[in-house]
Amino acid sequence: VAEDKPDPGGEAAALERLYGAYRSRIYGFLYRMAGTRDGADDLFQETWLRVARNWADRAGIADEEAWLFTVARNVFLSERRATATKLRGAEELKLVPAPAGRSPEHVAEDRQDAAALEAALAALSADDRAILWLVAVEGLEQRQIAEVLGIGYPAVRQRLARARERLSERLAHATLDGREPDPHKANQS
Amino acid sequence: MSSSHDHPLFHRLRALPRVEPDEELVGRVRALALTTLEGHSARLRPRQVIATAMVAGGVLAYFGWAIAFVLSP
Which of A14, A65, A131, A151 is most buried, most CB within 10 Å of its CB? Predict the structure, then answer.
């Protein structure tokens, strides 16, 4: 539809490039924030619409990666104010294909561990989930985290350490399907 | 923060299943974003035209006044 129209400034092409490069990462982040597919879908759409509406702001932005995650987080915060987000933790685990070369017992064990971690992550505050995800999975730098979370540069390490500690505590106290927690994995703080 | 990235808990977080948007959503959001971008650009154009016209009018008025001043007896 839109691609057939003239694009003199190359703006549509630039937006397409950004969308292609970041859509999966933004969706993964929003899924962890929302906790459900439906929630992530809505946030994903609103994030990219907000990016398009504020496209003119992009000219003055040095770090588009941090800008996009900031927009995504702000959309989540706005949405959360409007409706309380219900976290469902590990709803997608059943869709994950088994890794090749793993026995069914090991696969089941891996999935239980992943489910425990998903549940522990989902039980954290949105700020804790955001900082853990952005650092651990997205690999954002300290200055980028400070920008996305709207906090001072020195506070990032402290927030990260606390979030990690809280996740470790949640894991240590988690029992999944009556199973005792694995002390080796729970104490990795 | 490089040492923080190597924390064992972070390795476990990275190993969690990646959740991807489905194709239908990807296509729909792309089309919506591009349409929104185009709409915003279109709304900006009249404002840019008015601003340019005002500046050009000001310049013309200034030179007109200057020429009239020089040519006046």
Answer: A131
